[in-house]
Amino acid sequence: MSEPRVTILHVDDNEANRYVVTRILQNAGFTIVEAATGAAGLEAVAEHQPALVILDVKLPDLSGFEVCRQIKANPKTAFIPVLHLSASFVQSQDKAQGLDSGADAYLVQPVEPIELLATVRSLLRIRRAEEAAVSSARQWQTTFDSINDGVCLVDPEGLIVRCNRAMMQLFCKPANEIIGYAHHELMGAELGIGGSCFRRAKQTHQRQVLEFQSQGRWFTKTIDPVLDEHGNFTGAVLIVSDITERKRIEDERKQAEIILQQRNQRLDLLYETTRDLLERDQPLTLISSLFRKLKDSLELDVYFNYLIDSDRNQLHLVAYEGIAEAVAQEIEWLEYGQAVCGTVGQSRSQIVCAAIQKSNDPKTDLIRSLGITAYSCQPLIAQGHLFGTLSFGSRRRDQFTSAETDLMQSLCDQMAIALDRAQLLTSLQQQTDQLRQANRIKDEFLAVLSHELRSPLNPILGWAKILQTNQQDAAKTKYALETIKRNAKLQAQLVEDLLDVSRILQGKLSLNPVPISLAFTIKAALETVRLAAEAKSIQIQTIFEPNVGQVLGDSGRLQQVVWNLLSNTIKFTPQGGRVKVRLSKIAGEAGSRERGIGDRGTRGHGDKGDKGDVGEYSTSLFPIPITPNPQRGPRVPQSPIPAYAQITVSDTGKGISADFLPYVFDYFRQADGTTTRKFGGLGLGLAIVRYLVELHGGTVQAASPGEGQGATFTVKLPLVATAINQDNTVSDHRSDFNLNGLQVLFVDDDRDSREYIVFVLEQYGAQVTEADSASEALSSLEQAKFDLLISDIGMPDMDGYTLMSQIRENSPDQGGKLLAIALTAYAGEIDQQKALAAGFQQHISKPIEPEILIQAILSTVGMEPNQNQNGNRDCHYSSNR
C-alpha cells in the first residue's frame, strides 16, 4: 500500500547521501525537497512546509542541532517532525544532544532502507495523531463553550480543571483565575453559596441539585459525580444555570392555578343551577325557572331580559317578571345608553345600583318608578359577542353584596355561553351541510380528474402500440401521430391547469406587466384554437374596433385568458356553430375607479340579470389571497378612468342554466359532473380566467338566456393613458432557427426523453453530447468545453440541483459560468425557484414543444436571429471558448 503524496525535506551537504535517501523515499511514494546547507534548509521549511525534515548533523554553516532548535522554536514550524540522520555524530551523547535540541528521532548512517522508511512512517503517523488530537480538543472546547449554562470539571478535591465560557462570564473572571481554584470558594465569593453539594455527591456518588437565590436572580447548582470503571470517585461536573425566567413562569403558573381553583369552586356552586341551562338547545326558556330558584335566597322581585335586535340596532325585551304587561309594552324597546339596561348594552359591563329610591341619577328613573330598591344588570357576552342583558331587582332590600353580584354575573356568563353554544350548533349544522356539499363536489371532481387524465392515455397508448406492432400506410400513420399529439397536449394542459390552481391557492402567481395591444393577444389565442374550431366546422367571426389602445398586463397570462374562453366556447358549441369575438373600447365614467382586489361586481353572488330573461353573473372579487407582482405596489384606487377595453366572446352553443350561472367561475364546478356528461374538463378554466382578469384589475362576466341558447363572456380591462405602438400581427412560430456552432451537453437518466431531445437539438444543427447521469456529465465537462448545459432534475445518486451547484463551484476556465437550462417534470413554482437558486438560467417543464425549447435556448445563450438570403433565419453564436 503506497503512502499518500507528502513532502519531505532532506538537508545534507553530502550529495551521495542525498541521492540515496531521495531514491529510497521517492520509491516509497514521497515527494522530496533537498537542501545542502542549514540556512537553505530553514528557507525550504518556510517555503514548502514539509510534513517531515530529515536533517544531517554536520553541515557547512549551521549545525543540524541548531537548525532543529530553530525549527522547533518557530510556532509556525514547531509541529514538523525532525529526524537526525548522521554518519559522523554516532555516539550516544550525540544522539542525546540531537533529541535535546528537539529532534523526534535519531538514526545513524549507514541505515537500512526498511529502517529509514519505518522511522519516517512512524513519525508521520505520530504527527497525524497529534494533529487529530489537537483538532479534537479544539472541537471539544468549541462545543463546551457553546453550552449556555456555566459548566466546570473539578478534580476529586473540588479544584476546577476546566471551565467553559459561560462559567467565566458568570464569575466575571478569565480562565486562568478560575482553573486550579476550589470551586466552592469561587461560588461562595461570587454567588454566596457553599460546597455541601460536592461533599454529598462525593460521599453518595449521586447527583446533587440545589436551587438558590443570589443578587436578585435564581440559580440551580448541579453536581454530577464522575466515576471510573471500578466505581471510584474521580471528580465531578459542576453546572450552574440561571433559572430566573423559569422561576418567574412557575410563580405565574402557581398564581394562575390558584385563580383557576377559585373559579372551579365557584363553578361547582353554580353547577346545579346552570346544569339544565347548558343542556337545553334554547337556553332562554330557562330564565324564568332560574329566576324562581334565586328569588327567595336573594330576595328578588323582578327580572328583565333584553336581547340585541341587529335590524333596529336596539335592545328588545323578550322575557320579564314582576311588572305588569302594560309596563312591559312601554319599555319593550331601549336605545343604547337609555336607562340602566341600555347603558350596560353600550358599556358592555355590569352595573350595580343601591338605594335606588334615594338616587337622583336619571339612568335609574325607570327602575325607581317601578319601586325597585336594589338592582344589578349584567351583559350577556361570550367570545366577545354581546347577545343582550339580564338584570335582577329587589323591592325588599337596598343593596346586593359583592358575592351576590358575582354570582349574578357568573350566571349571566353561563347564560351567554349557552346562547353562544346554541348559535354555534346552528352554525355548525349549516357548515356541516356546506361541507357535505363540498365533499360531494370533491368526489365528483376526483372522479372527473381520474377520467380526464386517463382518457387521453387510451388513444396515446393504443395508437403507439399499433404503430409499434403493425405497419400502417402513410395516411393512417399520420392520423395516429396527430391523435397521439392531440391527446398528449390535452393531458399536458390538464396538468398545467392544476399547477396554475396550485399557484393561485398559494398566492404565488404573479404578473410581469407591460403595455400590450389586446388585438395581438386575441389573434395569438385564435391561432391556438384554430384547428379545434376547424375540426367542428365552427365559424369564428372577429370584430376589432380601431384604436382601442393598450392595457397594462402580462401578455402570456392575458393570452391564457382569451384562450381559455375560446376553448370553453368551442367545446360547448355544436358542429357548424358560430363564435363571435369582439374587441371594443368603452368610455368610462368620470369619478370611476380602478376595479381590482376587494371590488365587487355589479351583481351579487347568484343574482339574476335584469335584461329580460337573460341571466348574467359578474365578479371582480376573488375569495383567496392574491399576490400581485412584487415589483409593483399594491393597487390603489385611481380616479377617474377615462376608458376600458372590452373583450366579448359569444357563441351559439349549449348555454348556461340559471341555477348554475352564479357558480360558473368557481373552482372544480361543472354544470354536469355525472358519468353521462357530454363534455370533458376539470372545471378549472373559467376559475383561472376569473383570477387572472382580477389580477389585472379587470372584471369578467358570464351571461346566458338559458340552456341551448348560447352564452356570452365579457372581459373588461382598464386602458393605460398612453399607448405604445406595437405590431398587431401574430408572429410566425415556425421552427426556422439554426443552432450551428452551439456545443450542448444534455443530461437525463430517462433514455426515451434523452433520445427525443438529442434528436430535436441535432435537427436544429446543435452538436450534442449526451450523459445519462450527473457524474457522467461532470466527467464530460472535464474533457471538453460546452456552450450550454441542459439537465434533468430528478436523477439517481445526484440530482440536477447538486450537479449545478458543483459546476458553479468551478472556476470560469473549468466551466463554472456555463449557461444552463433545467428541463424537468418538476413544474411547480417552488421547483422553478430552486432551479434558479441552484444556478440555472431557465426552468422549463416537461412536456415541451421543440419550438419552445429552441426559443428558450436562444434566449439563454443570447443568440440573435438574422435573416439570410434564402429567407430562413440563421442564429450566429460566438463563444469565448
Structure description:
The structure is a single chain. Helix content is 42%, strand content 21%. It is α/β, with parallel strands linked by helices and 881 residues long. Helix 20 (751-763) links the parallel strand 25 (743-747) and strand 26. The longest helix has 53 residues, at 402-454. The chain is flat. The two termini are 41 Å apart.
The total count of helices amounts to 24
Helix share, percent: 40-55%
Quaternary structure of the protein: single chain
**What is the number of strand segments?**
31
Radius of gyration: 44 Å
How would you characterize the largest beta sheet? 6 strands, antiparallel
Give the percentage of residues in beta strands.
15-25%
Strand-pairing-aware structural class: alpha/beta
Strand order of the largest sheet: 13-12-11-16-15-14
What is the terminal separation in angstroms?
A: 41 Å
The overall pLDDT average reads: 79
Q: What does the overall shape look like? A: flat
Low-confidence stretches: 590-614, 619-641, 673-680, 723-735, 864-881
TL;DR?
The protein has 881 residues and is of the alpha/beta class. 42% of the residues lie in helices and 21% in strands. The chain is built from 24 helices and 31 strands.
Name some characteristics of this structure.
881 residues; alpha/beta; 6-stranded mixed beta sheet; 24 helices; 42% helix; 21% strand
